[in-house]
Write a structure and sequence with these properties.
Maltoporin, Chain A; 22-stranded antiparallel barrel; 6 helices; globular
């Protein structure tokens, strides 16, 4: 792992590179008067601040089918967070901006950890949610969850975040069960010039970012960026400091090269290093202590798109990802190589065929400690995939159907198939009705297959209960069969709304089955239970989500969202797991969200976000209302300043309780001021 000295050296090198590029950025560097950096005002792609509701509904998205389609015509419960939503929310991290998505549960565990999921089953490592950044999958193969503390970039470079509530496995494969989050950054051509951002507050103590974008020729654009932040500790209910502060340094680049009219090449990469704290109470000795977590990693991605004609193209993508993490319970290293090929073409005016191939290699090295263990210290796993999808227009401009399936071969359960059928009916230009039936699987993670964990529960002053849970090769995939229906409409160009309802049937859900129990007399006495992971539970979830945007006036827009969720779980008659049905009470039944964007005279903006989350009974977390506000000011075309206040209604509140030994903390009221300069 890197030391603080190494990180400072990295930052200095990155900033010197940026300064050198800026200093030498004249035409004569390239030996010609016709090629060089574009000194015109910076461009930012399409300006979402001026888009009408009709234009917002017709933004092109790619997460539902892999090809570009209008948001209003997608057969999925999808919500798009635009770059403007991110800017005007006033938040400083990707997990926090996800709070505005209806049906998404976002709970902050401590200063540097979040539990995020869609449509239930939330935990600190939610294993039924697929997260991608520019097409690169970022979940950890160890637990099938996401380390949200390392998922970051310069937020000003994020073009949009596409969030699918419901399965997306037919397109994206394993673990896209309850939802897909796809973070898409801007093209290098849309981030030209210099951008410097700096901010500080009582919790976000310091955030500094710098980006430089230029062009080598009129067909080759690039950007370089560096970002550093330092965030403060939260507190416990007792007001004691939680020792969960964290700091990260990262940098990266992107190059977009128009090889020809029919060929585009993208190269991009990131490197990061950070330290974060957490307070642990491990039940092997019941001692509470601060654990310093060291994290480092990097990635490289190459994507080539070739256009055969107006109706036919193909995309080939290859990326390498390296992650390192060292904490009290384990030290882990993961190397991932992923190859993906995708092709789309029209068989006729009414039929579009899409297919693709994929391969992923994950090699890990695990040094487990304390309460965790793994049978193999070093292991490699493989995923081979084939994807086929056919879209047929049944009635031109009115009715279409899409059927397809993802076929995969993985190292744990072998062959898996994940089909879907989707129907879209557009009775008029401003109204869309859709329905879908999908199957998705959550394949075993490394821990499910060969891991084990031990935890001790004090039953009384004289008795402790020790539970050791083992994974095993017999552990199977968890299965979902999802039924969805939705309706979108635009009314009088002022009101747009999106309603979706779902009924999910789960089979082979995870249970912990008691294998043996022994009693040891002592002071205290110990009951030692040995349990095995199995698939002896099933259940149903159902609910609905509503989102709406209303253009009150030319200068005031309001967005609201509401979601309802019900979970009913049942263990099989052969199961002895008394906790199999507990996840019913881990997710809120009701959530409400609202955003208000107001454009005031003299370049001022006043923005408000409200989130209501119902209580979590099993985790003993009370419901809460969170109110955030932001005041922004465009001083001129190059300079913006803003000040944001979060959690205004209470000084602190708890959002989640984690049972893995990580002590949950109180989310505190905060203030953050920011300056953004562009040139």
């Amino acid at each position: 792992m890197y030391s603080m000295k190494n990180r400072i050296i990295q930052l200095i090198v990155i900033l010197l590179m940026l300064f050198l590029v800026e200093s030498l950025g004249s035409k004569r560097v390239f030996g010609t008067d016709d090629v060089g950096f574009d000194n015109s005002p910076p461009q930012t792609g399409f300006d979402l601040t001026t888009l009408s509701l009709e234009q917002l509904m017709n933004i092109d998205i790619t997460s539902v089918t892999k090809w570009q389609q209008r948001l209003s015509r997608s057969a999925s419960a999808i919500f798009v967070i635009t770059g403007e939503d991110i800017r005007r929310s006033g938040v400083t991290s990707i997990p926090e901006i996800l709070r505005i998505v209806p049906g998404l549960q976002v709970a902050r565990v401590d200063s540097n950890k979040w539990a995020i999921t869609s449509r239930g089953f939330n935990q600190i490592f939610s294993n039924k949610l697929l997260v991608m950044i520019d097409g690169r999958t970022v979940y950890t193969s160890l637990f099938s969850g996401v380390y949200w503390d390392v998922q970051d970039t310069l937020l000003e470079d994020v073009e949009r975040i596409e969030v699918i509530r419901g399965p997306g496995a037919t397109v994206w494969g394993t673990n896209a069960v309850n939802g897909v989050i796809s973070i898409i950054t801007k093209k290098a051509e849309d981030t030209q010039g210099v951008l410097v951002t700096a901010g500080s507050g009582n919790e976000d103590r310091g955030i500094v970012g710098i980006r430089y974008g230029g062009n080598i020729t009129e067909d080759v654009y690039y950007r370089l960026y560096a970002k550093y932040f330092n965030r403060d500790d939260f507190v416990f209910l007792s007001e004691d400091k939680a020792d969960d502060g964290w700091d990260f340094l990262r940098g990266g680049f992107r190059v977009d090269w128009g090889l020809s009219d029919k060929n585009q090449l993208t190269l991009q990469g990131d490197i990061y290093n950070g330290d974060s704290g957490q307070t642990l109470t491990l039940t092997d000795d019941f001692v509470t202590f601060r654990d310093a977590v060291e994290t480092a990693g990097g990635n490289m991605l190459a994507r080539w798109k070739h256009t055969y004609s107006d109706t036919s193209d193909m995309t080939m993508q290859l990326y390498y990802d390296r992650t390192e993490r060292d904490e009290a319970t384990l030290e882990q290293y993961h190397d991932t190589i992923d190859f993906d090929f995708f092709s789309s073409f029209r068989l006729s005016k009414r039929q579009r065929m899409t297919w693709g191939l994929g391969y992923r290699l994950i090699a890990d090295h695990i040094d487990a400690r304390r309460t965790l263990g793994f049978d193999d210290e070093v292991r490699s796993s493989h995923i081979f995939s084939l994807f086929v999808q056919d879209e047929v227009t049944l009635v031109p401009d009115r009715l279409s159907m899409t059927v397809g399936s993802k076929l995969e071969r993985n190292s744990y359960t072998g062959f898996e198939h994940q089909p879907s059928a989707r129907l879209v009916w557009t009775p008029s230009e401003d109204h869309t009705v859709w329905a879908a039936v999908s199957r998705a699987v959550r394949t075993p993670a490394r821990f499910d297959n060969d891991g084990d964990v031990t935890y001790v529960i004090p039953a009384s002053s004289t008795l402790n209960i020790s539970n050791t849970i083992f994974g095993g090769s017999s552990y199977d995939s968890e299965n979902l069969l999802a039924y969805e229906i939705g309706y979108r409409a635009l009314i009088l160009k002022k009101l747009s709304y999106d309603i979706s309802a779902f009924y999910n049937v789960y089979e082979d859900l995870q249970t912990s089955e008691l294998q043996s129990s022994t009693f040891t007399f002592g002071f205290p006495s110990i009951v030692s239970n040995t349990k095995q992971l199995d698939n002896k539970a099933e259940g149903e979830t159902y609910g609905f989500e509503i989102s709406a945007k209303y253009q009150m006036t030319d200068w005031w827009r309001v967005s609201v969202g509401y979601s309802y969720l019900e979970i009913e779980l049942h263990k099989n008659s052969s199961s002895n797991d008394s906790a199999a049905e507990d996840p019913e009470r881990d997710s809120p039944h009701n959530q409400f969200k609202m955003q208000s964007f107001v454009n005031l005279p003299y370049g001022l903006e006043f923005d408000t976000t409200v989130n209501y989350v119902e209580n979590l009974p099993r985790k003993d977390v009370s419901g809460y209302i969170r109110l955030d506000t932001r005041l922004g000011w465009h001083l001129n075309s190059n300079l913006d300043v803003s000040i944001g206040l979060q959690n205004l209604l209470d000084s602190e509140h708890q959002e989640f309780f984690d049972s893995s030994g990580i002590e949950s903390t109180q989310i505190e009221r905060s203030i953050f001021g920011q300056i953004i300069w562009r040139h």
